Fold:
Amino acid sequence: MNMQQRLSDQHRVADADTSASAPATQQMPSVVLACRNVSHSVGDGADQLHILRDISLELKSGASLAITGASGSGKTTLLGLLAGLDVASSGHIEMFGQSLQHLDEEQRAALRRNQVGFVFQSFHLIPTLTALDNVLLPLELTAQASARKLALDALERVGLSARLRHYPGKLSGGEQQRVALARAFAGNPQLLFADEPTGNLDHVSGQRIIELLFELNSAKATSLVLVTHDLQLASHCDRHARLEQGRLVWQD
Amino acid sequence: MLWLSLRQSWRESRAGPLAGIFWALVITIAVLTAVNSASDRARQALTLAASELLAADMVLSSRQPLAELYRQQAETLGLQTAATVSFNTVVFAGDKSSLVAAKAVTADYPLRGRLRSSAQQYDSGDNSHPGPGNGAVWAEQRLLEQLGTAPGDLLQVGDQQYRLDRVLTLEPDRSGGFAGLSPRLLLSMDDARQAGLLRSQSRATWRLLLAGPPAALQQLAELAADDAEVRVTTPQQAQAQSADAISQTRSFLSIAALSAVFLGAAGMLLAMQQYQQREQLNVALWRSFGVPWSRIRLLMLLRLLWLTTVAAAGGIAIGIALQALLSAQLAALMQVSLPPLRVLPLITSFVIAATLAAGLCLPPLLQLRGQSPMRILRAAPGLRWQQLLLRYMPALISLLLIAWWQLRDWQLTLWILLILLLLLLAMSLAATLLLQWLGRRQHAGSPVWRLVISSLLRHRHGNALHMAAISLALLALLLLGWLRNDLLQQWQNTLQPGTPNHFLINVQPTQREPLQALLQQYEVEKLEFGPMAVARISRINGVPAAQWRPQADPPGRRDGTVNLSWRDTLPETNRLVSGEWFAPDSDQLQISLASDWANELDLAPGDSMTFSVGNETRQGIITSLREVDWDSFRINFFILINPAAASDLDYQYVANFYWSGSGNPAQTAGADHLLRAISSEFPNITVFDTNALVARVNDLFQQLTRALDSLFWFTLAAAVVVMLITVQSGQQIRRRETALLRCMGVDRGTLYRAWWLEQTLIGCIIGVLTALTAALATWWVSSHLLEIDWQWQWPLLLTALLSAALGVPLVNALFSRGVINTAPMRILQMA
Ligand SMILES: Nc1ncnc2c1ncn2[C@@H]1O[C@H](COP(=O)(O)OP(=O)(O)O)[C@@H](O)[C@H]1O
Ligand SMILES: [Mg+2]
Structure:
């Protein structure tokens, strides 16, 4: 169906740049993300800080996972590791069947390309680009076909059609967050990571974002990994785990 | 990709924050272009000025008629040519006769510079006339003196009669050397040929004067290189008056161009650092989108290229306008028409801007290659100074390459590297020590003090760059100012009013007293006598003189004879460069040589020379070398000996003096003009009137001084602008912080005081270290490149110190006054 078509498109793009992602798209594994005995620490000597200890989890294609925890408990760190934006100190993470620590930075980037979306907690919008350009940029950089249409579409879905030409500095926190979200899902990724996507939103806007995420989840079988404080959002997810002292405590 | 990067850059450029970086670049490049181009044009003008001293850009000379081939080849190459033949002959007027140094010239002579002449006697003349036409000759005043003739009289030259048309007062290629020269007679080449003067000349010098593009000259020089009979002379080789000053000014202009590069680097340092930090975030983001590295790299390169290209286009356009202003001023001050603007310095400016931009921000960006996005985003902005040094190494190296490109002098370039490194090291060391010291005191003291310390600690990375940038700009300025002062000081010694403008030769020892009495009546000043004996060098270090360094051709040695002089003390305008001055109580022959003369012959203290005087020979030891200032217009000798060894030599006197009435009829009514008085009372004495020459050198020095000055003041203005940019651009983060502090309720007074204290501290460090570095740098440039005396310049140093210590906080305060007074919310939103 539609999905098949999209995958082969990606395959072509991926091939053109590097071969690393080729095996990933050849057979669609039912488990998109797996993580075994992952620990992470930063600094050394007396300054060493163990953020994560012995984390294991699995995410099936089309499934959703919520991670909650106190601030400073390591949620962002874990999300970054799972998305391949950083490398764990020890343990094993597989994305689309590829072991992340056996790939170099370049190969991990290839794996993310067009398949992974990420919403940063602090958005990281480019202040010198308009809302539209911010969404457009990754699509153009990864040579997505009909990038402009995808970008407009995504902004429309987060309710920002009227603010296309505005710069991030002129948008409220919630609006910026929605631009960041639009940027993450505009390319129709299979796997979407979002770091507190409703953290800056009022109840109504938050609700709309949640609806939007699960709409993606069900329509396009996008797997979701969400970090949130919102227990209501967490309860919408197939699975829910809480980070406590660097360990995952499953809530279901 | 090209299109994408262009579009991205265009989109970003419409937003605010990049504009600051962009304008800093534009202004920096404008300054670079303006100083670069103006100094290039001034340098070209100087090349022309130097050519005037040779009357050509290059001269081929030979003891035989030059092959026609050279002239033909020169014309094929598009060069202008003129020919001269110099020879000695005798002219007659009535029953008197005189030996003259005749010079036959073609109509095109001189190719560079002008002849000065007058229709009257004792007049300094004007330069509106071409050389003598057919049937007419020009002569120097002293020939008229010797023959008792006046303009309009007929002179017998060879077998023809010519009308004495004008009095020659200055030849552009006249050298300052005077001894042994007969008065000049200038005539046309056709006349000389007709009079049969060129046929039987065994001792003539044939010259082919050339002017035109350097490449063509070079080709002709190569052609002549194989011809043992032909000697090639360029303005640099011509030992002409003021050649030194011209080459010093050229060096100064090179240093000015280099200073512009320093200013450029200073202006770009912070702008590019901010750009690099933004770009670093972009890289992390692109990475997280999964963009391949090859593409990221290309994107970074292209974006940087766009930024620099557009900034360079704007900067160069503004720079061209600025240099036009500056050049117009230079041309007016130097009273020359400057050669047109060349494309090369413009290209150079672009290359410099691009190289600096790349050197400053690419290396840290390219290092991000293997890093994961999270690390980049979470990276602490602070770096240790060792890391900083390493990070900016490529920039330092590009700076050096540029320095070399501007100066074409490896030694100097390496020195600059050393000096810059020293400055950076000293600055980092000072900063580190200060921070350590502060760190220990962080929790003590008043709230103001704590605020200062924490701010210094927090911004150490930014501060380090900030300090480097400001001190680079300050260094450029100090370098230029210092050298300007040194040069002017040096030239003032030459330029002193009352520089001797008359020379006398053939003064017999018995004539000295009466001559002195006569001169005193005419109120001459600076009268100096020097004894002079003619000797022949027979042996050098035991080898017959002709076989010693046979290729060498020291000036002032004709037919193997030299002039010896002697005196007790070192002449005022000389400087001992090696060995010891004469030991007074020894009868042994001691010799002191002019260093340029000794170098040509490869001689040093300790070597021996044997002179033959009359039938005797005397052997002596070289005891010292003197550096002689040939521009001083004083009597100077290549060879001096100790008076005790000269007691029994036959000698005459030479003398110089200054006479202000020269060129006017005598002031005292009834008395003859001084020169006529001398020639009638002492017919054997020859007087050289060098007034025109002194005036020309004076003019030239004044022009050079003005060129130097206007370039210096322009660079000063440019440096101030760059420093403003630099100081100000460090303030963006500060603004946010201050706003935050104010939000938290810190009162205005505390903020003000903390601010002043911190900035003054930084300013002081910059001032002290930069001043010391400038002293070191100028010492080296003065003594090695310009070959002038170096001295401490306290006023300049103090000014630099104060302007750094006060200027930095002042400018900061100026730019931040708004911050402390505006509503915090607005400032926070501005970013
Ligand atoms: N690179 C790092 N260096 C030092 N500390 C870090 C680094 N990354 C994360 N931390 C620390 O690890 C803890 C967890 O961070 P984070 O994952 O951002 O927490 P949160 O759950 O609030 O998202 C925090 O205390 C943070 O300061
Ligand atoms: Mg977090």
